[in-house]
Amino acid sequence: MESFTNDDHKSKNLQFDNYRSLISAEIELIQRVFEIRQNFSDSERLVEPILQRIRKIRSEKSLLEKNLNLI
What we know:
This protein is mainly α. It has one domain (2-67). The protein is 89% helix and 0% strand. The protein has 2 helices and no strands. Helix 1 packs antiparallel against helix 2. The longest helix has 38 residues, at 2-39. It starts with a helix and ends with a helix.
């Protein structure tokens, strides 16, 4: 029974570490989009792949939030 608790605890820790990494990546990508939009006139073509990645990160975060009972 105790090993299950440890395994569950380790799994939750890994999920939470992944969640924090996703938050950091999302913030960094949002900053990049902001910088690109400020510095390039044809920015939408440049930022679309980044925006797609941000959407994917948000989807992954949402799943982790549910698994970790954060929402």
